[in-house]
């Protein structure tokens, strides 16, 4: 990836700190559509063309979902990198804040820009399938945990008619229904 302006982005649930390496400027926006529009305004103020910008950010799960959609919509190149990879590239560092992290991510981008490939848009169905799989995995973990708890309660002599057992069995039944729905949702997407 070769661009003129490397921008480091440190994402959190509510905000995104951005640092432009070429101009040495920092800006904080909200992690929502109105904040993203302010990012475009900040680009203009910094004389940064969206076609000459490359944003580097850490994998943050769902925190980056809307931001990625926005970047694709405006054809702004971006790369998502594992946080551990960025951390290891820096060695021992002192101080930590979102502003400092955005600067460090930008520096990482400057150093590695020739080796990294921009993120391509993801097919919506594939993205949905991944989310359903994540939900399914969480439900399976919860189901397994509940089954273990039920077994332990039975081992210590709690009777089947006890509220402790009955309430856990109801939750377990609900989880099983949710698992079926998640699997049906995945199957429906795969048929399309």
Show the helix and strand layout.
Layout: E1 5-11, E2 15-20, E3 25-30, H1 33-45, E4 53-58, H2 65-73, E5 77-81, H3 83-90, H4 98-112, H5 124-155, H6 163-191
Parallel strand pairs: 1-4, 4-5
Antiparallel strand pairs: 1-2, 2-3
What does this protein look like?
- With 192 residues, this protein is an alpha/beta fold.
- The chain has helices spanning 33-45, 65-73, 83-90, 98-112, 124-155, 163-191; strands spanning 5-11, 15-20, 25-30, 53-58, 77-81.
- Helix 2 links the parallel strand 4 (53-58) and strand 5.
- Helix 5 runs antiparallel to helix 6.
Short account of what is shown:
This protein has 192 residues and is of the alpha/beta class.
Tertiary shape: elongated
Report the end-to-end length measured between terminal Cα atoms: 34 Å
Biggest sheet layout: 5 strands, mixed
- Give the class from helix and strand content and strand pairing: alpha/beta
Number of strands: 5
Number of helices, counting only DSSP H or I runs of 4 residues or more = 6
Percentage of β-strand residues: 15-25%
State mean pLDDT (0 to 100 scale): 88
Compressed to H and E, one letter per element, the order equals EEEHEHEHHHH
Binned, the helix content reads 55-70%
Radius of gyration: 23 Å
